[in-house]
Amino acid sequence: MMVAQTALPARCRLLALGLLAALVAGCTCSRVRINEGIEQLDSAWIIPGQTTFEEVITRLGLPPPAGKVDDVALYLSDDLLHWVSTDTFTAKLELGYILTPLFERSRTVVAHDLMICFDDRRVVSRLSRTARVGSTVHLLEYREATP
Fold it and tell me: For labeling, which of 46, 56, 97, 142 is most exposed (least CB within 10 Å)?
C-alpha cells in the first residue's frame, strides 16, 4: 500500500508538469523578405540588341546578393545579371523552455526576379521578369534581341 500512495503524487506531479508545458506551448510564424526593392526596378529602357552591360550596371547597379534558393546558387557573371527578391516563411511549434523548437518548417522562394542575359559583345540579348503570386509564377516581361 505504501508504494501506491507514493506513486500517486509522482503521477500528479508529472501530469501537472505536462499541463504546464502545454500551457506555455505556442506557435510562431514569420516572414522575411530579402531585396524587396527588386520589384520596383525599371527595365523599360533596356532594348535587347542595343543596351550594353555597362549601361545596365550604370543605371541599375550590381545585383545584391541573394544567397541560395532551393539549393540553387544565385549568381552574376559577364553574360548574366540576376536581381532576385526572396520570401522566407518559417513556422515553429514550441513547448516553452522544455523543447525549443519542437517543430520548425522553413521555405524560401523567389518572389520577384529580373534576369538580363548578354551576348559575347556584352550587349543585352534577353530580358526576363517574373513574380510569384501564391504558388504560381507569372512571367511579367520577356524580350529578346531579334536577329
Answer: 97
